[in-house]
């Protein structure tokens, strides 16, 4: 699972993912209900992609009715994504997206206490996580969007099994290789989409402990190109 990640920089969106960045800025590190860029097909009739801002968590806090206990929807389990009310509609409609990231963060308890680790690709390149997006009608305010990351069991993965509390099931986000970006977004059935939900090879990944930043910052204008 993943509840915190480093979003890809503005200039990477065009250079690495082939899309124009959204006009509005986003933060360096993304947490629940923060806005961040996601990428989808512009339409079913074209292979063109588009990037837009959406909030992290399929059901944003402001969309949870009063009196209902706040729940987290940053991650959707691949095994049950078609059954859970929060995710099933987007999954069945194949509202698939790529989440552009530079790294994601997970806690390791190997020392006996939680230690934050930064996880990314071995070559340091930005990458994309498989996700789902959803649209919300906010009346006069217009439309808003949200997204979730898809996860798979990682009990046998040499790296990802090292994270989360002892005794908990180990989970991992799904990293989509660049060669599969278009195929993932163009999936024509739930079975085809499910074929992409796999663990990433450990030899292509790197991880190291990293403390929390002193404060979360907004993407600076120096990154705008």
Automatic annotation (TrEMBL):
EC category name: hydrolase
A GO BP entry: protein-DNA covalent cross-linking repair
Documented EC number(s): 3.4.-.-
TM regions (residue ranges): none
Alphabetic keyword roster: Covalent protein-DNA linkage, DNA damage, DNA-binding, Hydrolase, Lyase, Protease
Pfam families to which the protein is assigned, alphabetical: SRAP
Gene Ontology MF term list: lyase activity; peptidase activity; single-stranded DNA binding
PANTHER family: ABASIC SITE PROCESSING PROTEIN HMCES, DC12-RELATED
Family the UniProt entry places it in: Belongs to the SOS response-associated peptidase family.
Protein name as it appears in the record: Abasic site processing protein
Organism: Paraburkholderia guartelaensis
């Amino acid at each position: 699972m993943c509840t915190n990640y480093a979003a890809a920089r503005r200039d990477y969106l065009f250079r690495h993912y082939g899309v124009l960045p959204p006009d509005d800025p986003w933060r360096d590190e993304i947490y629940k209900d923060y806005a961040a860029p996601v990428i989808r097909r512009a339409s079913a009739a074209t292979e063109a992609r588009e990037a837009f801002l959406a909030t992290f968590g399929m059901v944003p806090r402001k969309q949870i009715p009063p009196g209902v206990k706040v729940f987290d929807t940053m991650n959707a389990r691949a095994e049950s994504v078609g059954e859970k009310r929060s995710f099933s509609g987007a999954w069945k409609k194949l509202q698939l997206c790529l989440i552009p990231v530079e790294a994601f963060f997970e806690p390791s308890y190997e020392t006996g206490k939680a230690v934050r680790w930064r996880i990314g690709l071995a070559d340091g390149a930005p990458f994309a996580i498989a996700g789902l997006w959803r649209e919300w009608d906010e009346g006069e305010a217009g439309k808003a969007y949200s997204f979730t990351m898809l996860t798979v069991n990682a009990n046998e993965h040499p790296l990802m099994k090292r994270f989360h509390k002892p005794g908990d099931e180990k989970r991992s986000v799904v990293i989509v290789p660049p060669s599969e970006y278009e195929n993932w977004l163009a999936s024509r059935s739930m079975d085809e989409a499910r074929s992409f939900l796999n663990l990433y090879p450990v030899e292509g990944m790197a991880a190291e402990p990293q403390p929390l930043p002193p404060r979360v910052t907004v993407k600076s204008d120096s990154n705008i190109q």
